Write the structure tokens for this entry.
Amino acid sequence: MANPKKVLEEGKAVIIDKLPPDFREKHDEININLRVMALPEKTQIPEISEKHLGTLVSVEGKLQKIKQRYLTLKVGYFKCTRCGTLHEIEQETGLGPNQIQEPLECSKYSGGCGRAASSTSFKFLKDQSKYLNTEKLEIQDLPEGALGAKIQRKIGYVFDDLTGILQPGDVVNLVAIVQTRPRLRRGNPTTELDLLLEITALERLERAYDQIEITEEDIIQIKNAARNPDVFSNLVNSIAPSVYGHFYPKLAMGHSIQCSGVLNVKCQTVRESEAIFIFLMSATQVPRKLKSLSL
């Protein structure tokens, strides 16, 4: 979808215009976010390139980590130190840090003294200003859909009501606008640009295991599966079924899952699970390791 920001803003304006007049009169500010999901095509993270700049893409991936949580200035209020007039300046809510945009003058149209910024100064009123909750995310390509041996990652940003929803380990479907940001060298922008995702909508496909809530029905099914004599074989076969082969790594993982519930009682008050360590080496690294050992 081309020009997604313009389309989303126009859609938001149409929704607000359709609201009942009495509702709009009671609320000075109406905060509505238009979220669009179910795009006809999906794009893998490694496929995102310059042809997607400024367009809306649908991406499936796994949230690796939440790198930062912070506030982004949306509307700044400034006070003229000469006459005390308040000025409201809407800020550019881009990806990453941006300089605060101050008034260029104390405009007479706002009841000010008419002095330019060079003839007066403005005090930033942080308590009266408006902010957006912001999260900086690191999203990686799904292993089963990765192109090549290396799993690629992208940085994404979520704002407002989309923050606080995801946790590391969640598998998500994201709809985002592809943006760019110059890389900095010694504090100065360079000609090298990073591709970033401004996430406008999201849908959680799978939760991280520590967020799954087990119901009574689930407990009954788990106990019935435990009585099955082929329970261990079924467990091993259920590990990454979309990845063909690799029987022994899956077998090792199955043993770690099977034995992770064995408790080691050190004393009456200290109980911990036995630690099991699995060493997995990529097949592409084996020749290098053997060569270094022979030398």
